[in-house]
Design a protein that fits this description.
Layout: E1 2-4, E2 8-15, E3 20-27, H1 29-39, E4 44-48, H2 55-64, E5 69-72, H3 73-76, H4 83-88, E6 91-94, H5 96-101, E7 109-113, H6 118-127, E8 134-141, H7 153-167, E9 175-177, H8 186-195, E10 200-207, H9 208-217, E11 227-233, E12 237-244, E13 247-255, H10 261-273, H11 278-283, E14 288-291, E15 302-306, E16 320-322, H12 332-345
Parallel strand pairs: 1-8, 4-5, 4-7, 5-6, 8-10, 11-15, 15-16
Antiparallel strand pairs: 1-2, 2-3, 9-10, 11-12, 12-13, 13-14
Length: 353
């Protein structure tokens, strides 16, 4: 299980025969590769696939003011899905074939980018003392999607989620086999393509927000509870969900940087009470909201908070519990991935203590 975040890369290896697991929390691919890009000298050639942006986007935009920067069309989607916007920053966007042909050109320092770095994962897994070979690999990342012209990527992502959850309201319904990923979710498709290079019989991908929701709901403090609220406060994005017997009945997504304690508490209450709407959250700068059949805040039997920035709720007066599925807050997403695979494969129950 591989959870590709903005701050960390969280890896969980699970042996379902022995019931043993091994785990690692490492520097995120985008931070690691941004540092590698910053150290490159002279003109640059970037190839690879779409991955998380942010720091690497900032580095390449700055580099383009100093040296020539060439990017393959696939890797340029990391910066923007609009190649003309990338070119406006002084970066040349080449078709993938032409970019590949330039990889041996000594005029350019070369860097290949992707959310899954095979060599790093190999070192992590071999450090566990287990073989680098798997029955199943499942990875997650956040994908804003590539909507049709004139459609907000947030609206598009929300509509895809809503359609899926309306037909199957369980968070694991948003895990896709490598050949099932919607065409507009290019980052997840790129993730699946990269994961296909790992020695695995099957590959699945999932949105990281849904993985975190499912993982938080597996925490020991949520076990046996019918109605629960979960909140994952991650490095870049925060997702909250209300679940009734495992079904998502309402949820929201937000940029973590825009949240403080008071707003988080308000969002938890509004989500549970059904007093939020998608358009209202968008106007505030959030990613959106989904409301199906809320049960009311006072009906919640547990409020489980996870995520690397959960300390934002350290002084909350709400009846919250800090979750740690498999004994580790940072494994929330990977536990969600494991549980989604367990359900898809109809494996025996796993207790994530």
């Amino acid at each position: 299980m591989i959870d590709v975040g903005a701050g960390t890369l969280d890896v969980l290896y699970f042996d379902d025969t022995a019931g043993l697991h091994y785990k690692s929390v490492a520097r995120s691919p985008v931070l690691y590769l941004a540092e590698k890009a910053a150290r490159l000298r002279g003109d640059m050639l970037i190839t690879g696939k779409e991955m998380g942006g942010g720091p690497i986007t900032d580095i390449l935009k700055r580099k383009a003011r100093e040296v020539e920067v060439l990017m393959s069309a696939s890797s340029a989607r990391t910066l923007s899905h609009d190649p003309e916007k990338v070119r406006s920053w002084g970066i040349a966007v080449l078709d993938d074939e032409r970019a590949e042909a330039l990889k041996g050109d000594k005029r350019y320092s070369h860097l290949s980018i992707a959310d899954i770095e095979i060599d790093r994962l190999k070192k992590i897994v071999r450090g566990f003392g287990v073989p680098f070979a798997f029955d199943v690999v499942v990875a997650c990342a956040q994908d804003h999607g590539m909507p049709p012209a004139g459609v907000s990527h947030l609206d598009y992502r929300h509509n895809v989620f809503q359609a899926r959850l309306d037909s199957n309201p369980h968070p694991d319904s948003l895990m896709y086999g490598s050949d099932e990923v919607p065409a507009a979710f290019n980052r997840l498709r790129s993730l699946a393509e990269s994961a296909a290079n790992l020695p695995a019989k099957e590959v699945y991908v999932m949105d990281s927000g849904m993985a975190a929701v499912l993982g938080a709901s597996m925490d020991i403090q949520a076990l046996g509870k019918k109605r629960i609220l979960v909140l994952d406060v991650a490095t870049s994005h925060t997702v909250g969900a209300a679940l009734d017997e495992g079904e998502i009945v309402s949820m929201f997504e937000y940029h973590t940087r825009d949240l403080d304690l008071a707003r988080l508490e308000g969002l938890l209450r509004d989500m549970a009470n059904g007093s939020m709407d998608h358009e209202g959250i968008l106007k505030e700068g959030g990613h959106g909201a989904y409301v199906r059949k809320p049960f009311g805040f006072n009906e919640a039997e547990a409020v489980v908070v996870t995520g690397p920035k959960r300390r934002l709720l350290e002084t909350s007066r709400l009846p919250i519990s800090f979750g740690a599925p498999l004994g580790d807050n940072m494994m929330t997403g990977t536990v969600g991935l494991l549980e989604a695979v367990r359900r898809r494969k109809k494996l025996g129950a796993i207790t994530y203590i």
